[in-house]
Amino acid sequence: MPALEEAFRERLAKLAPEDPLVLAVSGGGDSVALAHLVRRVGRQGVVAHLDHVLRPDSGEDLLFVRHLAQRLGFPFYGERVEVGRIAEERGENLEALAREVRYAFLHRVAKEVGARAILTAHTLDDQAETVLLKLLQGTARGLGIREKEGMVARPLLPFTREELRAYLRSLGEAWREDPTNQDLSLDRNYLRLMVFPLLQERFPRAKEALSRFAQVREGEEAFLEEAAKARLLPDPRFFVPAYRALPLLKAPEAVRRRALRRILEALDLRPEARHILFLEEALGGKAGTLPEGHLARRHLGTLFLIPPRPKIPLPKGFRRPLPGDYLERPFGRKRLVEFLAEKGVPRELRALWPVRGERGRVEAVLGLFPPSEEEGLMGLALEEARKAFALGEVPVGAVLALGGEVHGTHNQVEATEDPTAHAEMLLLRRLGKGARGGRLYVTLEPCRMCHHALQEAGVEVVYGVENLKEGALTRYGQGGGMRGGLREGECAKLLRDFFARLREGCRSG
């Protein structure tokens, strides 16, 4: 077996050990080589070809690939989609839509044939071009092409385009050339045809160096992406995209920017450097509007991404607020606008928040009224915190809800002269293994000690306000799985009042 085939066989065994394999074959040299290699190393393939109908002769590519599949003894799946027409009708980016349609097709084929892997024919040349292109465009998240993403595997990444064509020539096999690959108006073609020849005159191993750089970055990226993911705490109280601000603000810059990229991608926006800078400014208090009309604004402890009004949903049975709307509560009426302000709703959303009821009297406010069970549980934690306040302890209270029972306590560091006597730790000591599966409501974000203990005990955490000094997530980035911001204002005020009293006592003394 030739060296190239042996190297391919080993990579394929690692990346995609189970047959059948869906092979994305366009008819170009790289994908034709992929199909031949799969056949010659004894694996079972299913050839899939999508005709984007972007050229008058694209149908000939489909016929070529079908004939290739027949000669190799592989099943063939083909589909024709007028991507250009669809992109024009939708006003979408042609390249992005073509990629979306192509991968949707490949996954459908994989599901139909029961495949566990989809192979694409990306090469070392593609890797080098992608690295340089992303650097120049300023969209360097991930930087290179990953060798495996979900079901998609790319076993040809170590091999050059020329190696694969030489392999096909040795077999006496032909391939199709796409004339659009000569179009210099396309950025990737310009790099391939104009820039890389100049680079390689001076730096003959430029492509290999860029590929190695991408491999190193992929390993680093995986670590940083996990750190960024931990910093993203969606706030489920709000029906528009909203994230806790302080865990992002206090993150290292590299982690914060990756987290902001994830926010942009969730909004279907390109994670360009200027958009990331825009969100950083919004975190700092400078509101503004992103492309597609989302308003990015920080209000209290939350970063809001407010869609344009036509895109804000109105659930069945709800309406928009009207002037004069009020809530009837046990202690009297409350103007709706005042209630929404108390709940941390930014002014831009107060006139849009879904409510239910007749004009004037509001019976329900989506997600905020009547109060949720979680708000009641945090209320019990606040009662515990007030007990600590009265005893001269840092006012942190916690309750653990488990199986219909609620257990509560508060900080007792001063009373016990035990620096570990935090509310969370006291509950864990009391309940032991019985705490597993419970949910803890605590007025202040847990420190590293408490967070680690809660994780080991299998307890979920909902906190009121961030702990800037010792918070497991906000300070140290170790708080994955927590939620924050519940009754934030009340939790924060209790702490402010305590430390104000402490400072006043120090001055009096």
Distance between the termini: 87 Å
Shape: elongated
Binned, the helix content reads: 40-55%
Helix tally equals 19
Spatial strand order of the main sheet: 3-2-1-4-6-5
Jot down its keywords.
509 residues, alpha/beta, six-stranded mixed sheet, five-stranded mixed sheet, 19 helices
Plain-language structure description:
- There is one protein chain.
- The chain has 509 residues and is α/β, with parallel strands linked by helices.
- It has helices at 3-15, 29-40, 58-72, 83-90, 94-113, 124-137, 161-171, 187-202, 206-231, 246-249, 253-266, 273-283, 336-342, 347-350, 373-390, 413-416, 423-431, 448-457, 488-508; strands spanning 21-24, 45-51, 76-80, 117-119, 148-149, 152-153, 242-244, 288-289, 295-299, 302-306, 326-329, 332-335, 355-356, 361-362, 364-365, 397-402, 405-410, 439-444, 460-465, 483-484.
- It has 19 helices and 20 strands.
- The termini are far apart.
